[in-house]
Protein backbone atom coordinates (compact mmCIF):
# COMPACT_ATOMS: atom_id res chain seq x y z
CA UNK A 1 0.00 0.00 0.00
CA UNK A 2 1.42 3.38 -0.99
CA UNK A 3 2.24 5.84 1.79
CA UNK A 4 -0.61 8.38 1.79
CA UNK A 5 1.74 11.32 2.28
CA UNK A 6 3.80 10.36 -0.80
CA UNK A 7 1.03 9.14 -3.09
CA UNK A 8 0.34 12.63 -4.44
CA UNK A 9 3.93 13.92 -4.42
CA UNK A 10 5.33 15.26 -7.71
CA UNK A 11 8.80 15.99 -6.37
CA UNK A 12 11.38 16.38 -9.11
CA UNK A 13 8.90 15.96 -11.97
CA UNK A 14 8.48 18.32 -14.91
CA UNK A 15 4.98 19.48 -15.86
CA UNK A 16 4.23 21.30 -19.12
CA UNK A 17 1.05 23.37 -18.71
CA UNK A 18 -0.38 25.24 -21.70
CA UNK A 19 -2.21 28.47 -20.97
CA UNK A 20 -0.57 28.52 -17.54
CA UNK A 21 -0.37 32.30 -17.14
CA UNK A 22 -3.97 32.92 -16.06
CA UNK A 23 -7.31 31.33 -15.31
CA UNK A 24 -7.60 27.58 -14.82
CA UNK A 25 -4.11 26.90 -16.17
CA UNK A 26 -2.59 29.14 -13.55
CA UNK A 27 -4.57 27.41 -10.78
CA UNK A 28 -3.43 24.00 -12.02
CA UNK A 29 0.22 24.97 -12.53
CA UNK A 30 0.39 26.51 -9.03
CA UNK A 31 -1.02 23.31 -7.48
CA UNK A 32 1.41 21.09 -9.42
CA UNK A 33 4.31 23.26 -8.22
CA UNK A 34 3.04 23.12 -4.64
CA UNK A 35 3.08 19.31 -4.99
CA UNK A 36 6.74 19.46 -6.05
CA UNK A 37 6.81 19.75 -9.86
CA UNK A 38 8.91 22.11 -11.93
CA UNK A 39 6.71 23.94 -14.42
CA UNK A 40 7.06 24.75 -18.10
CA UNK A 41 4.43 27.43 -18.67
CA UNK A 42 3.30 27.80 -22.28
CA UNK A 43 1.22 30.72 -23.57
CA UNK A 44 1.19 33.75 -25.82
CA UNK A 45 2.49 35.79 -22.89
CA UNK A 46 5.24 35.16 -20.28
CA UNK A 47 4.09 33.34 -17.13
CA UNK A 48 4.26 36.48 -14.93
CA UNK A 49 2.76 36.02 -11.45
CA UNK A 50 2.67 32.24 -11.85
CA UNK A 51 6.47 32.19 -12.11
CA UNK A 52 6.69 34.04 -8.78
CA UNK A 53 4.38 31.47 -7.15
CA UNK A 54 6.36 28.52 -8.53
CA UNK A 55 9.64 30.00 -7.36
CA UNK A 56 8.21 30.75 -3.90
CA UNK A 57 7.26 27.05 -3.77
CA UNK A 58 10.95 26.28 -4.36
CA UNK A 59 10.45 24.95 -7.89
CA UNK A 60 11.70 26.14 -11.27
CA UNK A 61 9.43 27.85 -13.79
CA UNK A 62 10.37 27.93 -17.46
CA UNK A 63 8.22 30.29 -19.49
CA UNK A 64 7.78 29.53 -23.20
CA UNK A 65 5.92 31.96 -25.46
CA UNK A 66 4.06 30.19 -28.26
CA UNK A 67 0.82 30.83 -30.13
CA UNK A 68 -0.99 27.49 -30.35
CA UNK A 69 -3.26 28.91 -33.06
CA UNK A 70 -0.21 28.57 -35.34
CA UNK A 71 0.32 24.88 -36.23
CA UNK A 72 4.03 25.45 -36.89
CA UNK A 73 4.59 26.86 -33.39
CA UNK A 74 2.77 23.89 -31.82
CA UNK A 75 5.46 21.57 -33.21
CA UNK A 76 8.16 23.43 -31.27
CA UNK A 77 6.54 23.26 -27.82
CA UNK A 78 7.54 19.82 -26.49
CA UNK A 79 11.10 19.81 -27.93
CA UNK A 80 11.69 23.27 -26.44
CA UNK A 81 10.15 22.24 -23.10
CA UNK A 82 12.31 19.11 -22.90
CA UNK A 83 15.40 21.12 -23.80
CA UNK A 84 14.64 23.73 -21.11
CA UNK A 85 13.62 21.41 -18.27
CA UNK A 86 15.40 18.16 -19.13
CA UNK A 87 12.31 16.04 -19.81
CA UNK A 88 8.50 16.02 -19.72
CA UNK A 89 6.72 13.87 -17.11
CA UNK A 90 3.32 15.58 -17.13
CA UNK A 91 1.46 17.43 -19.89
CA UNK A 92 -1.62 19.50 -19.11
CA UNK A 93 -3.39 20.59 -22.30
CA UNK A 94 -5.25 23.54 -20.80
CA UNK A 95 -5.01 26.43 -23.30
CA UNK A 96 -8.39 27.03 -24.85
CA UNK A 97 -10.37 29.52 -26.87
CA UNK A 98 -14.00 30.08 -27.79
CA UNK A 99 -16.30 32.21 -29.84
CA UNK A 100 -19.87 33.04 -28.83
CA UNK A 101 -22.79 33.47 -31.19
CA UNK A 102 -25.37 31.68 -33.33
CA UNK A 103 -24.03 28.77 -35.39
CA UNK A 104 -25.38 30.46 -38.52
CA UNK A 105 -22.94 33.34 -37.95
CA UNK A 106 -19.77 31.33 -37.27
CA UNK A 107 -17.12 32.16 -39.86
CA UNK A 108 -14.65 29.62 -41.25
CA UNK A 109 -11.87 31.60 -39.55
CA UNK A 110 -13.54 31.39 -36.11
CA UNK A 111 -14.22 27.68 -36.56
CA UNK A 112 -10.63 27.05 -37.62
CA UNK A 113 -9.11 29.06 -34.75
CA UNK A 114 -11.16 27.34 -32.03
CA UNK A 115 -10.59 23.85 -33.45
CA UNK A 116 -6.87 24.54 -33.93
CA UNK A 117 -6.26 25.69 -30.33
CA UNK A 118 -8.70 23.34 -28.58
CA UNK A 119 -8.25 20.14 -30.59
CA UNK A 120 -5.51 20.06 -33.23
CA UNK A 121 -2.85 21.52 -30.92
CA UNK A 122 -3.98 19.14 -28.16
CA UNK A 123 -3.50 16.10 -30.40
CA UNK A 124 -0.06 17.16 -31.62
CA UNK A 125 1.11 17.98 -28.08
CA UNK A 126 -0.18 14.61 -26.84
CA UNK A 127 1.74 12.84 -29.62
CA UNK A 128 4.97 14.74 -28.99
CA UNK A 129 4.76 14.32 -25.21
CA UNK A 130 4.00 10.60 -25.48
CA UNK A 131 7.07 10.13 -27.71
CA UNK A 132 9.16 11.94 -25.10
CA UNK A 133 7.69 9.84 -22.23
CA UNK A 134 7.88 6.51 -24.04
CA UNK A 135 11.50 5.56 -23.21
CA UNK A 136 10.69 5.84 -19.46
CA UNK A 137 7.38 3.96 -19.91
CA UNK A 138 5.78 6.50 -17.61
CA UNK A 139 3.93 9.76 -18.12
CA UNK A 140 0.74 11.62 -17.29
CA UNK A 141 -1.34 13.52 -19.84
CA UNK A 142 -4.28 15.60 -18.62
CA UNK A 143 -6.53 17.22 -21.19
CA UNK A 144 -8.90 19.97 -20.11
CA UNK A 145 -12.30 19.01 -21.45
CA UNK A 146 -15.55 20.75 -20.45
CA UNK A 147 -19.19 20.26 -19.57
CA UNK A 148 -19.48 20.76 -23.35
CA UNK A 149 -17.81 17.35 -23.74
CA UNK A 150 -21.18 16.02 -22.51
CA UNK A 151 -23.70 18.74 -23.36
CA UNK A 152 -24.48 20.87 -26.42
CA UNK A 153 -24.18 24.25 -24.75
CA UNK A 154 -25.70 27.53 -25.88
CA UNK A 155 -24.23 29.59 -28.76
CA UNK A 156 -20.79 27.95 -28.62
CA UNK A 157 -20.97 25.37 -31.45
CA UNK A 158 -17.25 25.35 -32.43
CA UNK A 159 -16.26 25.12 -28.75
CA UNK A 160 -18.70 22.27 -28.09
CA UNK A 161 -17.47 20.40 -31.16
CA UNK A 162 -13.87 20.78 -30.01
CA UNK A 163 -14.50 19.74 -26.40
CA UNK A 164 -16.62 16.76 -27.40
CA UNK A 165 -13.69 15.66 -29.52
CA UNK A 166 -11.22 16.23 -26.67
CA UNK A 167 -13.24 13.85 -24.51
CA UNK A 168 -13.24 11.14 -27.17
CA UNK A 169 -9.58 11.75 -28.03
CA UNK A 170 -8.70 11.27 -24.36
CA UNK A 171 -10.34 7.82 -24.38
CA UNK A 172 -8.82 6.84 -27.73
CA UNK A 173 -5.29 7.77 -26.64
CA UNK A 174 -5.75 6.05 -23.26
CA UNK A 175 -6.68 2.83 -25.09
CA UNK A 176 -3.43 2.96 -27.06
CA UNK A 177 -1.06 4.32 -24.45
CA UNK A 178 -2.15 2.66 -21.20
CA UNK A 179 -0.11 -0.44 -22.14
CA UNK A 180 2.89 1.86 -22.62
CA UNK A 181 2.68 3.24 -19.07
CA UNK A 182 1.20 6.58 -20.07
CA UNK A 183 -2.01 7.71 -18.37
CA UNK A 184 -4.28 9.90 -20.50
CA UNK A 185 -7.20 11.44 -18.63
CA UNK A 186 -9.23 14.64 -18.71
CA UNK A 187 -10.68 17.14 -16.30
CA UNK A 188 -14.07 18.58 -17.21
CA UNK A 189 -14.40 21.88 -15.37
CA UNK A 190 -17.84 23.25 -14.66
CA UNK A 191 -18.54 26.98 -14.73
CA UNK A 192 -15.30 28.59 -13.52
CA UNK A 193 -14.92 32.36 -13.08
CA UNK A 194 -12.19 33.30 -15.58
CA UNK A 195 -11.73 35.67 -18.53
CA UNK A 196 -13.20 32.97 -20.80
CA UNK A 197 -16.55 33.03 -19.00
CA UNK A 198 -16.65 36.76 -18.26
CA UNK A 199 -19.48 37.35 -20.79
CA UNK A 200 -21.60 34.75 -18.92
CA UNK A 201 -20.69 36.14 -15.49
CA UNK A 202 -21.82 39.59 -16.70
CA UNK A 203 -24.99 38.32 -18.41
CA UNK A 204 -27.89 39.21 -16.10
CA UNK A 205 -30.02 36.37 -17.55
CA UNK A 206 -27.45 33.58 -17.93
CA UNK A 207 -25.56 34.15 -14.65
CA UNK A 208 -28.53 33.48 -12.30
CA UNK A 209 -29.67 30.55 -14.49
CA UNK A 210 -26.20 28.99 -14.26
CA UNK A 211 -25.94 29.57 -10.51
CA UNK A 212 -29.38 28.07 -9.90
CA UNK A 213 -28.25 24.76 -11.43
CA UNK A 214 -24.97 24.39 -9.54
CA UNK A 215 -25.59 22.31 -6.39
CA UNK A 216 -22.50 23.85 -4.73
CA UNK A 217 -24.22 27.24 -5.13
CA UNK A 218 -21.27 29.19 -6.56
CA UNK A 219 -19.09 29.57 -9.63
CA UNK A 220 -15.87 27.55 -9.48
CA UNK A 221 -12.50 29.21 -8.95
CA UNK A 222 -9.27 28.28 -10.80
CA UNK A 223 -7.82 26.84 -7.57
CA UNK A 224 -10.76 24.39 -7.40
CA UNK A 225 -9.09 22.46 -10.25
CA UNK A 226 -5.75 22.02 -8.48
CA UNK A 227 -6.59 18.91 -6.47
CA UNK A 228 -7.93 16.99 -9.46
CA UNK A 229 -4.85 17.94 -11.50
CA UNK A 230 -2.42 16.81 -8.78
CA UNK A 231 -4.37 13.56 -8.43
CA UNK A 232 -4.27 12.80 -12.18
CA UNK A 233 -0.59 13.79 -12.38
CA UNK A 234 0.48 11.64 -9.44
CA UNK A 235 1.00 7.97 -8.62
CA UNK A 236 -2.39 8.04 -6.88
CA UNK A 237 -4.05 7.71 -10.31
CA UNK A 238 -1.73 5.13 -11.88
CA UNK A 239 -4.59 2.71 -12.68
CA UNK A 240 -6.92 5.41 -14.05
CA UNK A 241 -7.01 5.66 -17.84
CA UNK A 242 -9.40 7.45 -20.23
CA UNK A 243 -11.47 9.06 -17.48
CA UNK A 244 -13.18 12.45 -17.71
CA UNK A 245 -13.25 13.83 -14.16
CA UNK A 246 -15.91 16.51 -13.72
CA UNK A 247 -15.00 19.31 -11.30
CA UNK A 248 -18.27 21.15 -11.59
CA UNK A 249 -19.84 21.79 -8.19
CA UNK A 250 -22.26 18.98 -8.98
CA UNK A 251 -23.65 20.34 -12.29
CA UNK A 252 -23.62 17.07 -14.24
CA UNK A 253 -25.32 15.12 -11.48
CA UNK A 254 -28.23 17.53 -11.43
N1 LIG B 1 -13.71 28.79 -17.40
C1 LIG B 1 -14.56 27.78 -17.51
O1 LIG B 1 -15.69 27.83 -17.01
C2 LIG B 1 -14.17 26.56 -18.26
C3 LIG B 1 -15.06 25.48 -18.24
C4 LIG B 1 -14.71 24.31 -18.91
C5 LIG B 1 -13.51 24.22 -19.57
N2 LIG B 1 -12.66 25.28 -19.59
C6 LIG B 1 -11.40 25.12 -20.29
O2 LIG B 1 -10.34 25.39 -19.42
C7 LIG B 1 -9.24 25.87 -20.17
C8 LIG B 1 -8.76 27.19 -19.58
O3 LIG B 1 -9.85 28.09 -19.65
P1 LIG B 1 -9.90 29.44 -18.79
O4 LIG B 1 -11.30 29.60 -18.39
O5 LIG B 1 -8.83 29.46 -17.79
O6 LIG B 1 -9.61 30.49 -19.96
P2 LIG B 1 -8.86 31.92 -19.96
O7 LIG B 1 -8.95 32.54 -18.62
O8 LIG B 1 -9.42 32.62 -21.14
O9 LIG B 1 -7.35 31.51 -20.24
C9 LIG B 1 -7.05 30.89 -21.45
C10 LIG B 1 -5.63 30.44 -21.40
O10 LIG B 1 -5.35 29.79 -22.65
C11 LIG B 1 -4.21 30.42 -23.24
N3 LIG B 1 -4.40 30.51 -24.68
C12 LIG B 1 -5.52 30.89 -25.34
N4 LIG B 1 -5.29 30.91 -26.66
C13 LIG B 1 -3.99 30.54 -26.82
C14 LIG B 1 -3.16 30.40 -27.95
N5 LIG B 1 -3.60 30.67 -29.19
N6 LIG B 1 -1.87 30.03 -27.77
C15 LIG B 1 -1.41 29.79 -26.51
N7 LIG B 1 -2.15 29.91 -25.42
C16 LIG B 1 -3.43 30.29 -25.57
C17 LIG B 1 -4.12 31.79 -22.60
O11 LIG B 1 -2.76 32.18 -22.50
P3 LIG B 1 -2.23 33.54 -23.17
O12 LIG B 1 -3.27 34.58 -23.01
O13 LIG B 1 -0.92 33.81 -22.49
O14 LIG B 1 -2.01 33.14 -24.57
C18 LIG B 1 -4.68 31.58 -21.21
O15 LIG B 1 -3.67 31.21 -20.30
C19 LIG B 1 -9.70 25.96 -21.60
O16 LIG B 1 -9.36 24.80 -22.32
C20 LIG B 1 -11.21 26.05 -21.45
O17 LIG B 1 -11.88 25.61 -22.59
C21 LIG B 1 -12.96 26.45 -18.94
Automatic annotation (TrEMBL):
Keywords: Oxidoreductase. It is an enzyme of class 1 (oxidoreductase). InterPro entries: KR_dom (IPR057326), NAD(P)-bd_dom_sf (IPR036291), Sc_DH/Rdtase_CS (IPR020904), SDR_fam (IPR002347). The keyword Oxidoreductase applies. Residues 13-180 form the Ketoreductase domain. Pfam families: adh_short_C2 (PF13561). Its EC number is 1.1.1.47. SUPFAM superfamilies: NAD(P)-binding Rossmann-fold domains. One of its GO terms (molecular function) is glucose 1-dehydrogenase [NAD(P)+] activity. NCBIfam families: PRK07231.1 (NF005559). Belongs to the short-chain dehydrogenases/reductases (SDR) family. This is Glucose 1-dehydrogenase. It comes from Candidatus Segetimicrobium genomatis.
Amino acid sequence: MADGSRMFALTGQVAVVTGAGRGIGRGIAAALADAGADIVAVGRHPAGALADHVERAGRRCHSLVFDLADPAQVEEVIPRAAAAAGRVDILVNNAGATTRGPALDVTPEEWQRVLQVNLHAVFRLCQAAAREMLPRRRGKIINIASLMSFEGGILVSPYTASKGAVGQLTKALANEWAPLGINVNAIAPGYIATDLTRPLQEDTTRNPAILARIPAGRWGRPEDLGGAAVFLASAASDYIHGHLLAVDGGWLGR
